[in-house]
Write a structure and sequence with these properties.
Layout (H helix, E strand, L loop, with lengths): L3 H18 L26 H4 L33 E2 L5 E2 L2 H4 L49 E7 L6 H11 L4 E4 L16 H10 L3 E4 L12 H19 L2 E2 L1 E2 L12 H7 L3 E2 L4 E2 L11 H13 L8 E6 L3 H17 L3 E2 L2 H4 L8 E2 L16 H10 L8
Parallel strand pairs: 3-4, 3-10, 3-11, 4-5, 7-8, 9-10
Antiparallel strand pairs: 1-2, 6-12
Helix pairs in contact: 4-9, 8-9
Cofactor: Co(2+)
Pfam family, one: Chitin_bind_1
GO molecular function, one term: hydrolase activity, acting on carbon-nitrogen (but not peptide) bonds
């Protein structure tokens, strides 16, 4: 769902595109100096009396495609030139509001973040043997199989709030499952050594959390081709391998949807993935203020009220890219769940799947656990403490 700021940006880009096609300058169109638009802050106009005090910025429209500036599905499927991104509004340019995944039309913008490629060998040819009893592909898993358990999950990170979230989880002794997207939100790739993300992934692992895939750039898997779906999963695998030394067998599709009719289910099954959905959606992405986050709390409370810890179990969907989820909602979920007698586990644990089955060896495709796929809690802790990641790459 587009934010109000992103929607305003798209509308502005459409207005500028229409003006350009009509041969009207931004000033004549009443839009002021287009060069004073700030890509990093969703394009607010800088008052002229403040322009001299403003830091240098990347001009939003300094590298547009020469032939009309339009691109994408609304411009005859035309592509931008090298080094350019095709925004959601169908305009070539550079900067966050053009290049951010998943909004950038990656098929028509060579520099879209989604088109970045991790370093190292491609994992497409890695064998995909099946192990364990959890469903591969199919309609997906929506609920823990062990009664009395809650698997709290987070999508779209890591992000600037994730370290704080890990502190909250650690203070409460609660494990979680993180469905990681590598290059969304212009964050530069989770295996990029110049960012904080590799360290956060390693901390997730060492703190006992489960790490799973949420695709490379958060594209809707029902709306892209089979080869593009493989690309979304394989590039995420490569990034995981670069940091952790292995990649997950668990994933959640963006927008919680993966249709067999679109070919999505078959592709993910071919790649050997457990498709994990949820039976409680807190809608935290719609409740972004201290007041409205109460709506998400009410959703969780209502779910617990509809069952009991002797027979019910939940997989709870959240997002660690939202500050209220991290600083407010998470503690409420933990406190409420424990008060109702529930135990918090990772998705793999609440499905009875040994930790060694959660990840594949990138060389053999086998589970990283023992040949039986079984790892005890004590040996898992020892393994986390002694496991050295391969050198992650810039």
């Amino acid at each position: 769902m587009l934010s109000a700021g992103r929607l305003s940006s798209i509308l502005l880009q459409l207005t500028l595109l229409s003006a350009a096609q009509a041969g009207i300058s931004p000033n004549a169109a009443g839009l002021g100096d287009a060069g004073s638009l700030l890509p990093g802050s969703r394009f607010p106009l800088i008052p002229k009396d403040l322009a001299a005090r403003s830091p240098p910025i990347e001009p939003a429209f300094d590298r547009r495609q020469a032939a009309g500036d339009g691109c994408g599905s609304t411009a005859g499927n035309t592509s931008c030139g090298a080094g350019l991104c095709c925004s959601a509004a169908g305009l070539c340019g550079t900067g966050r509001d053009f290049c951010d995944a998943p909004d950038c039309q990656f098929e028509f913008g060579p520099a879209c973040d989604a088109n970045a490629v991790p370093s190292g060998a491609n994992t497409t040819s890695v064998p995909r043997p099946r192990f364990g009893s959890v469903l591969y592909g199919g309609g997906g898993v929506t609920v823990c199989s062990e009664p009395g358990t809650i698997a709290i999950t987070y999508d779209d990170g890591p992000y600037v709030y994730t370290s704080e979230l890990l502190d909250v989880l650690s203070a409460n002794g609660v494990p979680a499952t993180f469905f990681v997207t590598s290059v969304n939100l212009h964050k530069g790739g989770v295996d990029n050594a110049s960012t904080e993300w590799p360290g956060i992934l390693l901390r997730m692992r060492d703190d006992g959390h489960q790490i799973a895939s949420h695709t490379w750039s958060h594209q809707n898997l029902n709306d892209i081709t089979s080869s593009q779906r493989f690309d979304q999963m394989v590039k995420d695998e490569m990034a995981f391998r670069n940091v952790l030394g292995y990649f997950p067998t668990y994933m959640r599709p963006p927008y919680n949807t993966c249709l067999r009719t679109a070919g999505c289910v078959d592709d993910l099954e071919t790649l050997g993935y457990h498709i994990i959905k949820y039976n409680v959606d807190t809608l935290d992405y719609l409740n972004l203020t201290p007041d409205t986050i109460q709506n998400s709390k009410d959703i969780f409370s209502d779910a617990l009220a509809g069952g009991d810890s002797n027979s019910s179990a939940f997989i709870v969907g959240n997002h660690d890219i939202h500050p209220q989820t991290v600083s407010n909602l998470t503690q409420f979920i933990i406190d409420e769940g424990k008060a109702q007698g529930y135990t918090f586990k990772t998705v793999g644990d609440c499905l009875g799947d040994p930790e060694g089955n959660w990840y594949r060896d990138p060389a053999t495709g086998e589970a990283i656990g023992s040949s039986s796929g079984s790892i005890s809690s004590s040996s898992a802790a020892a393994k986390r403490a002694s496991r050295n990641p391969v050198a992650f790459l810039a």
